Amino acid sequence: xxxxxxxxxxxxxxxxxxxxxxxxxxxxxxxxxxxxxxxxxxxxxxxxxxxxxxxxxxxxxxxxxxxxxxxxxxxxxxxxxxxxxxxxxxxxxxxxxxxxxxxxxxxxxxxxxxxxxxxxxxxxxxxxxxxxxxxxxxxxxxxxxxxxxxxxxxxxxxxxxxxxxxxxxxxxxxxxxxxxxxxxxxxxxxxxxxxxxxxxxxxxxxxxxxxxxxxxxxxxxxxxxxxxxxxxxxxxxxxxxxxxxxxxxxxxxxxxxxxxxxxxxxxxxxxxxxxxxxxxxxxxxxxxxxxxxxxxxxxxxxxxxxxxxxxxxxxxxxxxxxxxxxxxxxxxx
Amino acid sequence: xxxxxxxxxxxxxxxxxxxxxxxxxxxxxxxxxxxxxxxxxxxxxxxxxxxxxxxxxxxxxxxxxxxxxxxxxxxxxxxxxxxxxxxxxxxxxxxxxxxxxxxxxxxxxxxxxxxxxxxxxxxxxxxxxxxxxxxxxxxxxxxxxxxxxxxxxxxxxxxxxxxxxxxxxxxxxxxxxxxxxxxxxxxxxxxxxxxxxxxxxxxxxxxxxxxxxxxxxxxxxxxxxxxxxxxxxxxxxxxxxxxxxxxxxxxxxxxxxxxxxxxxxxxxxxxxxxxxxxxxxxxxxxxxxxxxxxxxxxxxxxxxxxxxxxxxxxxxxxxxxxxxx
Lengths: 333, 325
What we know:
The structure holds 2 protein chains of 2 kinds. Chain A is mainly alpha-helical. Chain A has helices spanning 18-22, 25-43, 50-57, 61-75, 83-99, 104-129, 133-152, 166-169, 178-196, 198-208, 210-215, 220-246, 257-267, 279-298, 303-329, and strands at residues 171-173, 176-177. The relative contact order of chain A is 0.20. Chain B is mostly helical. Chain B has helices at 2-6, 8-26, 33-58, 66-83, 89-113, 118-137, 149-153, 164-182, 184-194, 196-201, 206-232, 243-253, 265-284, 292-311, 320-324; strands spanning 158-159, 162-163. Chain B starts with a helix and ends with a helix.
């Protein structure tokens, strides 16, 4: 983001030989996922139970939904650090609506609308005023969560209607949770948008060279604005899910989600400098993070120590191809 | 006079004076020298941290791991002090600087040698360093009664009417001012941020400069670790959680461009002071501290909007619309 961009080209499926597919980033992620899965199943006898595997998905679906939209935003060369604060604000607004006696449909609409509104606010600031998104969203992060703190103080909103619990706790078929189904559906939609539409093509192009895009007639500002709205929208959806799953709203809800969502995106092979990445990678990275946290949880490893593994995983996976190339060229520092 | 007004620091200073004036209308004794000294002392740690972050941001990088570094180093020195109260405080400060330096060097090495973007590296080490704090401490806290009186009282000792903490902050400010304005290193840090390619041609080792700034921010994180723990007299895994963004916010309010190359020591100090005054004033004028985040968030956005106007690239404009994109 703030580093010097290296020259890149827009990836083209047609000029890739088969070998590059086998040694691709996604393949590396699949290998890592299988390894962690194997280690987990040996480490704990409870891991392979269908219900515990189903519980596993709750570790990443909410963050994963945000990561899908974040991936597009980062590919376009921007970033949104305010997503967790948007979740907090949307959840707070839903809590206020519950106090006023709102029913489940109204709650969902409010959650999604607040998310979309916050995303649009970020988008306006970045595109209309031409400000760097990393600072704008640090500001709106404090602003959105600050509003949640002003409204809630040290209180918590409870008393969500029983039917509202379905979104975070319901199952659509046997052990498949509504959250997982929604995540997979959203992943499919985002995959299609990014890899099969001209809009997706433009997202890559904007990330590679916004000035050239502007000259080619691509409306750079509008595309970035739409992406900020999408990230806000997904945060609103995540707010509905997490509020429903927890059954309560606190101003500290979803703390640290922004960094976990960005970790998923970067681990998924999206270049933080923009211009490169795939949805499949992000989905795999989300699964890997779910596997790691769940497996370590079964081994009674505290959450804060899990974060060491996530951090190491991030750095090692990013460094691996670089170290590998240097070793092959025989010029490692 | 016109040139004088071009400096962002002057505007920031005017803003701070205005802020103090506004607060004084509600609570007159806020502007007392004694209280302002107190506010300066309360903000000292943030000022020190903002300076460390400033040199990193100047080179177009970012250090998200500073608060975790602070937490880890603070825990290490607090545990050392609890286990061996005989170790003198200056030795502990040196240890804090070295531990911080080591953590910063890890960041710097990954950025320099492996060319991983700094935001990714420090996002990773942010969680690693905080997790490492848990591993070192086993999740236990170090409480005030386990710390030696020297450990706690060192930075409170008054000298010429100011506590040692304020003096340390002033010393760090002076050091950074000297390095940034009077040394080749300061010049290279600016140059790398303004134009990395030109810097290479000018004979500046861009990678090494980035390594050095991460070492500096690491040492600053370590120093702040000791100061923070001895000030708030509790060391836990939760110390300064999320504080990395306050540090960056202070830099942004101080007019340091996240795109690199623009910023000054005075700006970073005043930016931190601005945030410090807000957090000190809210309880005094009977506004709930819950407002603090929203107010500092608005201040950041306002500061960015104002900064952006001065930062527009002064280059050849072929198509105005493209420049705006």
